[in-house]
Amino acid sequence: MGKKVKKIDESEKTINHANLSAQKKYLYHGSNKKLKLLMPSTPSDPKKQNSLNAVYATDNKDYALAMALTNQKNSTSFVTFNPLKMHFVRGSPKMKSVYLPYLPAKSFKKNALHQFISFSLIQTLKIEKHSIYELSHLWTKSTRKELKLFLKNRK
Question: pTM of the full predicted structure?
Fold first, then answer.
């Protein structure tokens, strides 16, 4: 007897990245506050796609948690990928814990790599609380070399 080989329709192989959020059940938003309702707001970022008046979310839990570490006074930071790490140029995380709200993916559209946006109010589906101590792998103080590179690229 021959082995049965399942034919895969070419359309099944293709992922529509513009509609990726519709294929996921949840997206995540990191916060240092326990928020049950997220309102669109404008982040301070020099890149236009990152400074829209919107609710921002990601499909990467660690990225959301790293972003939650940054929302505090007197700190400046930037993120690198591979490995994912939040680099603090000024200040460091001072809070005891951060929150990871789960958001309905169907309410968002893709904006950038691992970034989704919604221009509507978003009700959280559930919220996880994470101790800052369990997130030490996600952040570091910047080295002088990283600081120079950060300042050069910030202009």
Answer: 0.76
